[in-house]
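RECORD TYPE: protein structure
NAME: Pantothenate synthetase
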Amino acid sequence: MKVVTSATDLNAISPARPRVLVPTMGALHDGHLALVKRARELAGTDGEVMLTLFVNPTQFNNPSDLENYPRTMDRDLKLCKEHGVDLVFAPEADSMYQPDHSVNIIESSLSKRLCGATRPGHFEGVCTVVLKLFNLTRSDIAVFGKKDFQQLAIIRRMVRDLNVPITIEGVDTIRESSGLAMSSRNTRLSEKQHADAPRIRRALLAAQDLHAQGEHDPEKLLACAREEIEASTEGAKIDYLELLDAESLQPLEKVTRPAVIATAVFYGEVRLIDNIELG
Ligand code: AMP
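PREDICTED:
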């Protein structure tokens, strides 16, 4: 396995074979490894799996979240090696952004709500870095998790609208046995918060069950989910909880089309996200 740490060095290596990219911010867990597994399948024996480890500063709107984001480079490299990654790109921030960097990608529809509304500038940072990684790595396919439902939708839209020559593949959310979606931020939860946090999943499943029983009113479905989250004994605080059209990410008056309920919940300073699809 090769490790490259600067954009210039990466540019010098042209892909000799089909390349499948897995962009991450590191602190790898089984969710990331499911993406690597899918990438390995898509690359086949002839192709190459490339994983990027980069805690992108421009997508953090909260300096303390950036500062406290877990960084476990040695362990990450070991996991990459064990899981068949061929090439790791782990750039320093100053090799990715020029001091007078002035061009950014702005998605202006799907990013209006959810994380886009509560984390101003987040998706501008994400789109910009992801497009830079697509350009730098010249990958054929890129694999993303459905845990970040809105991110995946926005990246698909960027690729469509800017004719980026890459195929995007989505992978289902990997969960702990409790149902809690795996996240690098889970390591920052206290033991009690960690035990309480699976209620996020239970809340979304309860709303999904209610929908399956014939309830189509978004307010009632959201109230059902909200009740479970607000019963938290660890002071879970809802950042957002919304039911949206799964494609346009716009609110629905009635759930008559495929929809998604997405939520972000704070446990102290730690913000966790999850979502569930309806219909
Ligand atoms: P991150 O390192 O959190 O930026 O995530 C890198 C990629 O891994 C993104 O495409 C995420 O959607 C994906 N990912 C993170 N957690 C999970 C999970 N629990 N299951 C599946 N994919 C995930």
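COMMENT: The two ends are 42 Å apart (CA to CA).
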